[in-house]
Amino acid sequence: MKSDSVAMVTLPSNSHKQETVCIFGTGDFGRSLGLRLLQSGYDVVYGSRDPKNSLLLPMGSKVMSHADAAHEAQVIFLAVHREHYGFLSSMASELGGKVLVDISNNLKRGMYRESNAEFLSTLVPGATVVKAFNTISAWALQSGGLDANRQVLVCGDRADAKQLVVDIAHGLGFTVLDKGSLKAAAELEDLPLQLFPLWRLPLCIAMGLTAFIFFYALTRTVIYERVTNGKDIAFRIMISLANKAFPVVALVMLALCYLPGALAGFLQLYNGTKYRRFPDWLDRWMLCRKQLGLTALAFAFLHVIYTLVIPIRYYVRYRINVFTISLIKNNVSYEFDNTAAWRHDSYYSMGILGFGLFVLLGITSLPSVSNSLNWREFRFVQSKLGYITLLLCTLHTFLYGWDKFLKPSSYNWGTPPVYMLSLVVPCVVLILKLILITPCMDHKVTRIRQGWERQNKTLAKTSQPLMA
Predict the structure, then answer these.
(1) Start-to-end Cα distance in the chain
(2) Would you say 9 and 128 are in contact if contact means Cβ atoms under 8 Å apart?
(3) pLDDT tens digits, one per residue of 137-186
């Protein structure tokens, strides 16, 4: 039987780099794959519907008809779209016992009832289909995996056929992750169609917060001055109002990175076990914490840049000149305020230290850096230093506001200053964390996370008659 011939597929006794690999398809991906195979020491033969019109193929490769090319190799890469699979059904005899590597993707999700790889296996039942290389781009092949994704996802029903593809991937300089049987092909085909799936929630939160804070500040300053005093200060929209929204969004989103961890700790205390699933919303929240933090870091960078341009703004220089001239005209000296000096220096110091640690958190979240850290080191940076970063940034905001909350003039139309809104979530997170690190609470959480479970009272009651 044809299926028995597939079971006999084995690697050649010599190095696999002397093997001939066949590619059906002469498009961008097929050409890039062939070039990389040639550079890695493989012999490459192309199967084309028009062998005489294939001038762009890499030097050193051969091109012939599909049927002739199929006879030259055991492994055949199928670099054509699903709608062009029709010619394969007429080649059932030539493809019997071969390993077909399906690298196709669809234009959108849900186009077909079954995956392309599963459809291919029914179209050519005598061949063994392996899904692989569909998440690798032509650019990754051309660069040898040095400047792009280095991981190849593989799935298939036969271990020996998958091993052939795995060896080729290793020969090209890629790492391999086995995703199981061919039923996983649908999942693999959906991966290239995803557009930043873990970034959607953080970006939506960032855009929503930015819009709310910006219009809130716009109402309290520009609109308020126009309505009450008839002044036009709309020019402050470009720098001043933007620099009010950016730090608020950065601080709130940094706090949102650590809020789900605190909530998870209290849930585990409530449940008395770590073996009960968290709610779905909390699971999704925890999965995108890295993206929340990087988005917050981007807004922190904007805040720093906008702050650095403040001294060169026309409005600021105008205010300084007017103030200086008024002191000279009135023959008034500007007394040194020691309290104000301490406050401003502390405010800047907390901001610099907080931003420095913030950048460190962002650097350690990079895969190239995080992979070089063990779990304890990574946890120390992302958890302990993360909370210190949140504390420093919160103190930076408190020192910025200082005693403004005591002044009635700060509450335009009865609304609190913008900085006060930014302190709500960080303070909640810090208070929850402070509760969790108290000795009695920390001891219970540690025991639960080590596997201890609290006995259920109702279970204990029902077990008493049985014990009797």
Answers:
(1) 66
(2) yes
(3) 888 888 765 555 678 999 999 999 999 999 999 999 899 999 999 999 99
Residue 244 and residue 417 in contact, taking contact as beta carbons nearer than 8 Å: no
Rounded CA-CA distance 127/99 in Å is 6
Q: Return the CA Rg of the chain.
A: 32
Q: pLDDT tens across 65-87, in order?
A: 999 999 999 999 999 999 999 89
E strand or H helix at 175: strand 175-178
HSE-CB at 9 with a 13 A cutoff on CA atoms is 24
Q: What is the DSSP letter of 222?
A: I
For residues 259 and 425, is the Cβ–Cβ distance under 8 A?
yes
- Candidates 164, 170, 163; CA nearest to 144 is 170
| pLDDT tens profile 327-343 | 999 998 888 999 999 99
CA–CA separation, 67 vs 366, rounded Å? 47
The b/e string for 305-328 (b: 16+ C-beta within 10 A; e otherwise) is ebeeeeeeeeeeeeeeeeeeeeee
288 dihedral zone (left: phi>0; alpha: psi -120 to 50; beta): alpha
- pTM for this predicted structure: 0.76
Query: How far out from the chain centre does Cα 441 lie?
Result: 32
How many C-beta atoms lie closer than 10 Å to residue 451's C-beta? 9
Distance, CA of 45 to CA of 21 (rounded, Å): 6
Cβ atoms 43, 21 nearer than 8 A: yes
